[in-house]
Specification:
The complex is a heterodimer of chains A (about 90) and B (about 600). Chain A is of the alpha+beta class and about 90 residues long. Chain A is built from three helices and seven strands. Classes of the chains: A alpha+beta (about 90), B alpha+beta (about 600). Chains A and B meet through strand 6 of A and helix 8, helix 9 and helix 18 of B.
Amino acid sequence: MPTVKIFANLRKIAGTKELSAAGTTVGDVLNGLREQNPLLVEAILEDGTIRPHFVITINGHNALDLNTPVTEQDVIAIFPPIAGGS
Amino acid sequence: MAGWSEKVLEIDLSTQTYKTYPLDMDMARLYIGGRGLGARLLWDLVGPGVDPLSPENVLIFTNGPLTGTGYQTSNRFSVTTKSPLTGTILDANSGGFWGMQFRKTGYDVMIVRGKSDKPVWIEIKNAAITFHDASDLWGMRVFALTEKLGQNNNKRNVLCIGPAGENLSRIAAIMNDRERALARGGPGAVMGSKNLKAIVVEGKDRPEIVDKDQFKFLLYEARKSLAQSPLTSQALPEFGTVVLMNIMNNVGALATRNHQQTQFEGAEAISGEELTDNYLVRNASCWACPIGCTRISRTEKVEGEGPEFESTWAFGAQCGIADLPAIIEANALCNDLGLDTISVGSTIACAMELSEKNFMDSELRFGRADQLAPTIEAIATRSDIGADLADGSLRLATKYGHPELSMSSKGLEMPAYDPRGMQGQGLLYATSNRGGCHMRGNMVGPEVLGAPKLIDRFQVQGKSSFVILHQNTAAAIDSLVLCKFTNYGVAEEYFARVLSAVTGIKYSTGDMIKVGERVWNLERLYNLREGFTNKDDTLPPRLLNEAPTDGPSKGWVVQLEPMLKEYYRGRGWDENGIPTKKKLAELDLEVLL
């Protein structure tokens, strides 16, 4: 089952740093998470797409949309809008 | 003319005299203020071959037409000088309150030249300039000195150096408002070389605004945009800049142990989330800033501003240290001693690698949090091992026969982003006019954060056009002088519109970007006049030849050569990186040659 790591204020919503859910695409996994934590998935998706400025990576590589495939061993990281650099 | 006070204050420390004269308004229209105006003035005032630590170098403090108007983040100011660390042109800008107060004294520019024969501090109260003996202040640290000289955020503001500047450390910062820094490239050493300990400003002038109604409207619109952007209304205020730690580590672009790795196993322990959960006392903000990204942090030993992402990285991942309290304390110590946290952390990391590889005889080792504070103290006083580290990593690594272990470009230590995982950032570092720097147009937005839009961070072809645009935009914002974080929430067109409203001169977005391009090319001309060539547009060999062996950046080195060729062409420069006559004419720069 893919591991899902979450960051910044998503952790407050989820009450944890790490979850897991079954699925073969990013969208599948998020749908799986919806059953565990609907508020978390609502914070990430809007009208069935990833909200603006959210960054989702699979093993550190950007997932461009919800159809991006994942395998059992993959680590999905989800970052809400973040900024910085000084 | 509204927008500028039209006055220059020139102080000669050798004679302890000053004069004032009108600002050249043709120059002001072309270069605006801040970094641009500073660069143009330095071109005339400090010619080739001048030793940066000699009386012939100058410090040019500039504000901009928006400074002190109340426009969002209109608190910043710049210092321009010739860098004692790199020998390049140097500008550094800082937030807080001092810049706003300096504007209220009625000057756009303050030029400090010469050298006092004994320590001195300067007090500027509106039109009155007073030179005070600073003999009894010499040696004082920044926090105590700032308090002694009467820091009062909205009324009286203190800019000063600490012991590091006095001891001419080439990585010494100028500090303002206690914990804000004009940090990079060693401006604190230039101030120290002039025996100038502090400049205190108190003013009451109010900047004039031509179109007050339009200004108010734009202020309202910008406030709304900043409140609506999740980047400026949530991300920065909630977690501060350190929130970048986990994402940079996740994508394999977090320089670790002097850039030997691109991921740090201790990243979570020094992340923005950890700082917020366990050490944050409250947020704070600079004058007229609705974003409020500043952290006030507390450990058992210290309480104060910061640390920012770059400082946390420099003492953390770069030194292999996952001890957040020790990092917070190292940051506070650098502020108190007047040191640039990025260069200090990276220089210590360089010494750690030199020592671990037996190129240097010292006890410094990666991961040793207990070594941070004593090493920083030693740097500021040039004592013990600090004598070797006080002038930055390139001089240190050269002394011990391994200059390739300095993670710097043009001698300036690079910040946190490992460019093997961000090709555009590599080009940015290599071409930055003040050396390895992320504030000349950071590519973290497009290459990692997806702001404004995500581009492939490993892509090489076509990357230079993004870098050029970001560099020009950064130079324009630095010339206004505003905080670049506003650019996360406010469209670039606002900068031209608000400048037009304040000055009454019609500026378009294209005009603003052209100002940025003009400034960039002028800085390039300055460095060429100092003897720099296209051979200096490079990176440490490690980043060009040694690919990470694991993580998301596995197998990648910076593909600099093809990006540079494309960059020179995109800039309108020849194959040797020299601006063509056509480009200079287009930018009104041909008159300088």
